[in-house]
Specification:
Isopropylmalate Dehydrogenase; 10-stranded mixed sheet; globular; binds 3-isopropylmalic acid; binds manganese (II) ion
Length: about 350
């Protein structure tokens, strides 16, 4: 029996609405071909609404989001709003409110995409970063004292509980087990962060030995991880790490797969409401020009379908994206694709609709 998914669509700021429109076009083509329904609802959240009304995510909207099967987000970030307000008030608010404890970031170099790493091709870059998404320096613990004086003190604390670490590790081990190479690397900093990453490392080996003996375990310090991601990305299969390191290494990873035009992520609670997004920003200077690359948003839509259980549709979207990168686009960069934003959406959507024949 075919299902209908209720999806909240938050275009957000800058080019967010433009890329999300193309993602929706592709989702609709997939729904048609694979016979499932989409009940899409738009939500006006972002910098413009905040400047107009002072609202970030009104409680009533939060309640509606809670009843959705998934959320598709464009981008958050507005040049007239001080950094931190929209990020904390909208993006992080939704992540925390729905306890989206996994930030899943696939790193895959698609055919035809220019890679900044010398002599590396699609066969070398195909891994996934599982970034913990609720704890660490993101938990909001900290403060100032004597602010504005020469003796000012600023504290921002990284906090992890065993529960948070275990549930993230379990997700990562399960993911690694489903992949052919069955290898999970913990990215930490046990030589300096001797409390937080000591906890991660103990939990990693305990869980691995007891519950996932078939998954190979590796450990890398975060600085070395960055080095190997550039030098030998083919070493990686699944990387699991804390929130802050995960934030940083996934931007590095994104650039190795062709940049923000292609990199997508999911903020996941396996049994709750998850949110999928292109990981690039709102790119205000390109707003309304129809030049931004929508593939990252389209890939986020594909991840969303995979998450809700429409695997075949998700695979069809990925194949269509690969067809377009391999055969159509000149570059992934805004304004240099050889096509407009809407044309790229059309190319992917028609490939999804026709099954590629
Ligand atoms: C990301 C972003 C966010 C983060 C910002 C915008 C709060 O950089 O999704 O990686 O730090 O998590
Ligand atoms: Mn980031």
């Amino acid at each position: 029996m075919s299902r209908t998914y209720k999806v909240a669509v938050i275009g957000g700021d800058g080019t967010g609405p433009e890329v999300v429109r193309e993602a929706v076009k592709v989702l609709q083509a997939a729904a048609q071909r694979f016979s499932f329904g989409l009940d899409l609802r738009d939500y006006d959240l972002g910098g413009d609404r905040y400047l107009r009304t002072g609202e970030l995510v009104p409680d009533s909207v939060l309640e509606e989001l809670r009843r959705c099967d998934a959320i598709l987000l464009g981008a958050i970030g507005h040049p007239d709003v001080k950094p931190g307000i929209l990020e904390k008030g909208i993006l992080l608010r939704i992540r925390f409110e729905f306890d989206q404890y996994i930030n899943l970031r696939p790193v895959k170099l698609y055919p035809g995409v220019e890679c900044p790493l010398k002599d590396k091709g699609p066969e070398h870059i195909d891994y996934v970063v599982v970034r913990e998404n609720t704890g660490d320096l993101y938990c909001g613990a900290g403060g100032f004292s004597m602010r504005g004086t020469p003796h000012e003190v600023a504290i921002q604390t990284s906090i992890y509980t065993r529960f948070q670490v275990d549930r993230c590790l379990r997700y990562a081990f399960e993911l690694a087990r489903r992949r052919p190479r069955k290898t999970l690397a913990l990215c930490g900093k046990t030589n300096v962060l001797t409390y937080v990453y000591d906890l991660w490392e103990r939990a990693f080996h305990e869980m691995g030995a007891k519950e996932f003996p078939d998954v190979k375990r590796e450990y890398y310090h975060v600085d070395a991880t960055c080095m190997w991601m550039v030098k030998n990305p083919e070493w990686f299969d699944v990387i699991v790490t804390g929130n802050m390191f995960g934030d940083i290494i996934t931007d590095l990873a994104a650039i190795t797969q062709g940049g923000m035009g292609i990199a997508a992520g999911g903020n996941i609670h396996p049994d709750g409401v998850s949110m999928f997004e292109p990981i690039g920003g709102s790119a205000p200077k390109y707003t309304g020009k129809n030049v931004i690359n929508p593939l990252a948003a389209i890939c986020a839509g594909g991840m969303m379908l995979k998450h809700v259980g429409e695997e075949r549709a998700a695979e069809a979207i990925e194949r269509a994206v690969m067809y377009v990168t391999a055969n159509k686009l000149k570059s992934l960069a805004a304004g240099r694709m050889g096509y407009t934003t809407t044309e790229v959406g059309d190319l992917v959507a028609s490939h999804v609709a026709s099954g590629g024949d």
